[in-house]
Amino acid sequence: MTADAPAWDVDGRDWPNREASRFVEAGGLRWHVQVTGAGPVVLLVHGTGAATHSWRGLAPLLAERFTVVAPDLPGHGFTQASPPRLLTLPGMAEGLGALLRTLDVEPAVAVGHSAGAAVAIRMSLDGLVTPRLIVSLNGALLPMRGLAGQLFSPLARLFAGGRLVPRLFAGHAARPGVVERLLRDTGSALDPAGVELYARLVRRPAHVAAALGMMASWDLGPLARDLPRLQSRLVLAAGRRDGTVPPGEARRAKALLPVAEIVYLPRAGHLAHEERPEEVAALVEARAREAGVLPAA
């Protein structure tokens, strides 16, 4: 880890579910991953700019029925920064596949949040995992529409191309109220502990650089093209209050894969799994029983 990256002995001193953490060498990276519980394996894939802390409430609930495997994605949290190739969607999928092979686990269920849902689906499409069920939590699965879609990737590439912008953003994030406003704009309300964990990460330039690099490398066109051939059962959970990925995006995805199921979360924003972990855990468990992953209730 560089001095700019989150430090386990400092930033991870009271990390949520710390007792489940381990560091694993796989695919040329040193990964931070949390493994807890017993039963069928559920893989949790966080979104851009987050880390394993985002599962702090959900992971212990799922661990009552599942073996939970939750990694920090490359460059995020306490996982080593990666070459640009591993920040693309296929690269993320490939790297995470290498980690699962090293851990010798085969997920029966994959739960992905935002961009993490795209990673989970790409892994399934590429044969890196064969889950019976994928739960997309406010999944960012399709290319952005309109002018925003035309400008997003070029701007992200511009910002990610040097060291200055991550440092400026990290410095800005240290100002009072900045992280609170960023999170509030997602439509979710987190407790002070949740806000502080995000603030801890975004004040580290290496974490910010990984998030920008991921956004700069993202191309969802091939995923949209390939989505109709997905074999895993797909549940599209959409927070009605999501200010980042509008609920209508779930309908766009279902139009490409009509067998997918949409479940609306009326009181949730983009960070649904953080503000309503019990509701999300109940959804995952219920659909896992329907898919035959868990015994019928």
Core attributes:
Rossmann fold, single chain, alpha/beta, 297 residues, 8-stranded mixed sheet
Describe this protein's structure.
The protein has 12 helices and 8 strands. The protein is 40% helix and 16% strand. Strands 1-2-4-3-5-6-7-8 form an 8-stranded mixed sheet, sandwiched between helices. The chain is of the alpha/beta class. It has a domain at 18-146 and 218-290: Rossmann fold (3-Layer(aba) Sandwich), CATH 3.40.50. It starts with 20 loop residues before the first strand and ends in a 7-residue tail after the last helix.
What's this, in brief?
The protein has 297 residues and is α/β, with parallel strands linked by helices.
- Shape descriptor reads globular
Structural category: alpha/beta
Average pLDDT: 91
Secondary-structure element string = EEEHEHEHEHHHHHHEHEHH
Q: What is the class of one domain in the CATH system?
A: Alpha Beta
Biggest pleated sheet = 8 strands, mixed
Contiguous helical run count = 12
CATH overall fold name of one domain? Rossmann fold
Low-confidence stretches: 146-152
Any idea what the CATH architecture of one domain is? Answer: 3-Layer(aba) Sandwich
**CATH homology superfamily of one domain:** Alpha/Beta hydrolase fold, catalytic domain
Write out the strand line-up for the largest beta sheet, numbering strands in chain order.
1-2-4-3-5-6-7-8
Rg of Cα set: 18 Å
